[in-house]
């Protein structure tokens, strides 16, 4: 019995060893399975790389960008020529379409306001057109004024040269040159109203010499010389040159416009009063006075009597004639230095 039990134990041991071997053999077979699993794990990132849409998405975006860039091109072409005129035309067309349509809708804006807007727009357009026209006229006028001034300068130079030429010719021939008589005189009042006879007072009123140191331009003729002779003790006068005339008009010139004393700051003031005589600027006025032209009367009357200062250094002796060392009477060309002191 003991032997049989020993045999049974050996058999059981053998069976256990066989089972262990059997268990060992499948474990060895399972090893490749693990490798396969590893392979599968290794393959997974490959699949992920393939699935990643990193490379595809930018392509889709680029295509979309091209489409977007292409789409606004026709829109830009349509909106490019849209201007104020086109908008106005479109509004008119819409308004015409609404009027043509049978359905009459109540306007959102009252009709009175629409009419007011329309009139204001028309007025603005007219104002703009008038302004442009005015600017064009002013530009043309400036050019004409410049050319006139240039012409007058040439004329004055020619007169001066002609006088020099005549003097030289007379000297060569052994004669004396007698210049033509002066056409223009400038009269200044130097005394007040105390003890003045009514007759010289009236003459000074006609000359518009109502205050001391008032001065006016006068045309030299028989009538004016007789008037000057009557009031000579109260005035001093002489023959001004071009420089004196220009300085008086530019420095002390005032115009009589609608009965008021207005400074000559703009050519438009002169043109308004003397434009019908062809005098449109300061140089025209100076030329008309200096040359004693056809319209001298109107040009001289337009100028307000000049208000001058007392001469620098004062008067010498008002009650004596200039020829006797005094102040009143005819100074001829020596009126020019006096005017330099008084302006």
Automatic annotation (TrEMBL):
Biased composition (Basic and acidic residues): 1-48, 57-70, 96-106
UniProt keyword terms in alphabetical order: Coiled coil, Ribonucleoprotein, Ribosomal protein
GO molecular function: DNA binding; RNA binding; structural constituent of chromatin; structural constituent of ribosome
Domain (Large ribosomal subunit protein uL30 N-terminal eukaryotes) ranges: 109-179
Bias kind Low complexity: ranges: 71-81
Taxonomy, superkingdom: Eukaryota
Example of a GO biological process term: maturation of LSU-rRNA from tricistronic rRNA transcript (SSU-rRNA, 5.8S rRNA, LSU-rRNA)
Coiled coil (residue ranges): 115-142
Keyword Coiled coil included in the entry's annotation: yes
Pfam families (alphabetical): Ribosomal_L30, Ribosomal_L30_N
Positions of region (Disordered): 1-106
GO annotations of cellular component type: cytosolic large ribosomal subunit; nucleosome
Bias kind Basic residues: ranges: 84-95
Domain named Large ribosomal subunit protein uL30-like ferredoxin-like fold: residues: 185-235
InterPro entries, sorted: H1/H5, Ribo_uL30_ferredoxin-like_sf, Ribosomal_uL30, Ribosomal_uL30_euk, Ribosomal_uL30_euk_arc, Ribosomal_uL30_ferredoxin-like, Ribosomal_uL30_N_euk
PANTHER family for the chain: 60S RIBOSOMAL PROTEIN L7 (PTHR11524), LARGE RIBOSOMAL SUBUNIT PROTEIN UL30 (PTHR11524:SF16)
Family affiliation: Belongs to the universal ribosomal protein uL30 family.
NCBIfam families xrefs: uL30_euk
Name of the featured protein: Large ribosomal subunit protein uL30
Source organism (scientific name): Octopus sinensis (East Asian common octopus)
Source taxonomy: Eukaryota, Metazoa, Spiralia, Lophotrochozoa, Mollusca
